Amino acid sequence: MKRNALLIGAFVIFALVIAVGAILWLSGNTLFRKHVPAIIYYRGNVSGLYVGAPVTFRGVSVGQVDDIGIDVDAATLKARIPVRIHLQPDALNIKAKSGEAMDLPALVQRGLRARLVAQSFVTGQKSIELDFLPKTPATLLAPPESDKPEIPAVADRFGALIDQVADLPVRETVEEMRATVKQLRETLGSVQQSLASAQGVLTSAAQEVVKTGTESRQTLAAATAAIQQVQASTTATLASITKLSDASRDMVLGAQPELQRTLENSREAAEAARLAMDRVSALTAPGAPLRGDLDSAVRDLAQAARSLRDWSELLEEKPNAIIFGGRRE
Question: What is the domain partition of the chain in residue ranges?
Fold first, then answer.
């Protein structure tokens, strides 16, 4: 009986040793380490954040989430989410110029901020990431009696975008898109009808073009035949003109001696006429002997003409004057 009790006690002690060793191994030798508590207040949604979520600094694990609560203001009914975390001091070891390690409030003054980040887009789990953002204002929401240092929270990288998307008039946008799609369908229908009409017009135009092309080819063939006929006639006419020109040239060449003789005779006749005119001019010149004789002859002819005129008038008055004679009264 005593032996069985001893065996049972030894087994229980061995099991306790194994359990403690497992706890120490699973805790990563952090069970007896001193942790730095801190608190982070969030005003928005912290969906996906859970107790035990890791707290990282640029990808390096420096702590984890211990508790997530809710604080509601009774007057304004505004809620804030306090998230209590603990940090490992040896993991977040930042020293000042003097060589001493800086405490958490000093790090907050230098720009230490907390931000929710997504661990996985599939599961939707989130973690807390710490980083230095000196240009980000530090908004502290912890009450004055709080005994834990606060790390200011900054909005998620996609939080502003999500808020803007949430504020978008999705329903109105969808209705406008539907109306636009309907107008596009109507426009496409009108365009299709216009295209069908245009296709009919183009078909008719193509038929007219084909018909016009056929008629143009026929007209071109007729014009080509007419041009060929004109060309043949022109060739014959040119041949006739060439023959006539050759005959005329031969005739001119044959008649050239006669023409030369005719020209010489004409020159001689012209010379004789010129001499005759010179002689006439010399005879009729004032003071010439023949000129006086000509003047006397002309006067006698004029006097004889007057006598003949008087005699004719007398005969008209007295036809018997030829027999009995007489004078004009």
Answer: 32-167, 287-324
